[in-house]
Amino acid sequence: MVRTDRPVGYISVDSSLLSGSLRENLVLDATIDESRLRQTLDSLGLTGPRFLDLDAPLLGDGRGLSTGERVRLAIARALLADPVILFLDDVAGVLDHNAREIVRGTLEGITTLAIVEASVDDPILTTFFQHVEVTE
User: What are the chain's domains?
Assistant: First the structure.
């Protein structure tokens, strides 16, 4: 058994965004420098005009963002917390092909993170250490 003080991340289509700024949603109460925030957003393809001002308020629960953008923000928040394990609960279906490829490239490049993905659609991850398929 390995003990760690690193958190566990969980992302689903229903992952919530908080009232407040984009920055507040990403860092929660942690201190994370601007360059790391930018790098994380960029790596997940969150680079458009609505992601330029980190101190701009988000509308309640991310209204005005697509479901895919909300999920990628939730992934960014989880990655910024440096989790030991990241659970992806059927989020691939809300990402368009381009976003899925961007997220795939980001996650597959992180070697210090175990990822567990449940997906009824095409999974985000295509390379894996162990694949388990559950059928009825």
Answer: 8-118 (3.40.50.300)
Q: How far apart are CA 63 and CA 20, in angstroms?
A: 12
Single-letter code of the amino acid located at 73: L
- pTM of the entire predicted model: 0.88
| pLDDT tens by residue, 27-81 | 988 889 999 999 999 999 999 898 999 998 887 767 788 999 999 999 999 999 9
Please name which of 84, 97, 99, 90 lies closest in space to residue 119, comparing C-alpha atoms. 90
Q: Round to whole Å and give the CA distance between 72 and 105.
A: 13
Q: How far is Cα 89 from Cα 74, in angstroms, rounded to an integer?
A: 12
